[in-house]
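Write out the 3D structure for:
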Amino acid sequence: MMTNVHLATALPEIILLSGACLVLMLDLFISDRKRDYTFWHVQLVLLAVLCAVVANIGAPSSFALNGLYVHDYMGDVLKIAMIVGASLLMFYSHDYLVERDLYQGEFFVLILFAMLGMFVMVSGANLLALYMGLELQALCLYGLVAMNRDSARSSEAAMKYFILGALASGLLLYGMSMVYGATGALDLIAIYKSSMSPGVNKTFLVLGVVFIVSAVAFKLGTVPYHMWVPDVYQGATTPVTLLVASIPKVAAFAFALRLLVQGLQGAVADWQMMIVLIAGLSMVVGNLTAIMQSNFKRMLAYSAIANMGFMLLGFAAGSVEGYAASMVYVLAYLMMTLVSFGAILLLSRAGFEAEELDDLRGLNQRNSKMALVILVAMFALSGIPLTVGFIGKFGVIEALITSRFVWLAVLAVIASLVGAYYYLRVVRLMYFDAPTSPEAITLRRTPFVLLCANAALLVVLGIFPQTLINICAKALSLAS
C-alpha cells in the first residue's frame, strides 16, 4: 500500500499526462483542415505544465510516490528548458509538416508522451521509475522517426534506432539488476548508502556500472555506441531530427546524473575512467568524421557525438563544479541545436529539403538575415567567444584543469579547433560562394522571429553568462 503519495509534488507530470490524453481524444474529432486547433491545444498544455513547474520552483526538495519521484531545483530548471524547447520546435516545424502532409495529430501526441517520459527521467529517484521514463521516451521517438511511412529512408532509420535502442535498454536493465543484486536497493539514496559501505559486493556493483554507463552512452549517442546517430538524423524527417537532437539530450544528462552521481557515487572510481575514455573518443571520432560530410544534417549528427563527449567531460572531472559545467553545456547545446535545425526547417519548402551543405551556398545574397542566424549558431557550436558555446566549453575545460585532468583539457581544446573547421566551412559557403539560385528566400514571419530571438539568446548569454552559470551551480549544489 502506498502511504506517501503526495501527488501535488508531481503536478507537472499529471498535467502533461492529462493534457496528452485530452489532445489524443480531441484530435479524433478534428479534420485535417482544422489541425491548427490541435497545435494550439498542445501549446496550451505546455503552457499549463510550465506554469506548474514555475509555481513550485525553488521549493525545498521533496519526494513523492513512496520515493519513486523527487522534486528539486535541478529538475525544475531542466523541465523549463525542455518545455520551451518543445514549444519552439513545434513553431519551427509547422510549415514543414503542412507542406508534406505530415501535419497529423499523432506527431503532437507522441511528442507530449515523449516529454512525459523525459520528465520522469529528470525526476526519477528509483531505478524502476528511471527505466520506465526512458522506455516511454524511447518508444515515442521510435514511432516519430518512422512517421513518414512513404519514405524508405525513414523506415530504415526507425528500424536501426529500434533494434539498437532495444539492445541498449537490455544493457541498462541488466546493469540495474546487477546493482540491485549488489546493494539490495532500488531507491537511489539507498543505493548510494550501500555503495559507500565496505561490505558491498564490489564485483556485482562494478559489472552493473559497466552496463549502465554503456546504456547512458547509447542514449547520448557517444562513441562506441554512436552508430545509430547519423542514420537517424539523416533518415528522420527534419522536425523529428530536431526533437531527437535536442530535448532528449537534456533528459539523458539528468538520467546520467541521477544514476551515476546520486546513486553510484560510491563507485565513482570505476565509472569515471569509463567516462574519460568515452568522452575522449567521442570528441575525436565525432569531429574528424564531421569534416568529411556533405549533408548538413549528417554533419550536425557527428557534431552531436562530439558535443555529447564534451558534455561528459564534466562528469569525468568528478566534482560539483564539473557537473554544473556539464549542465551549462547541455542547456547551451539545446539552444544551439534549436537554431541549427530550426534554420533547416525554415529554409525547406515543398519538394525541397535544405539539408545539403551546397544548399547554403550564397545564402547571404538570398536572405541575409537567415545567413546571420546560421552564422551565430555555427560560431556558438564552434565555441567562439561572446557566444554561449564558448561559455559552455570554457566551464568544462576549467573543471577538468581543477580536477587535474590537464591532458584531457588539452585534448578538448584540440578537438574544438578541429570542430571549428567544419562549422566555419558553413559560414564560408553562405558568405563567399555564389548562390545556387538568384531567387530571394522569403520566410514566414512568426517562426523566423522566434528563431532570431533564439539566436540572439546565444549571444546574450555569451556576453552575460553569469545568470545561467549561477542557476546551474545552485541546481547542482542542491542536487549533489
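The chain is about 75% helix and 0% strand.
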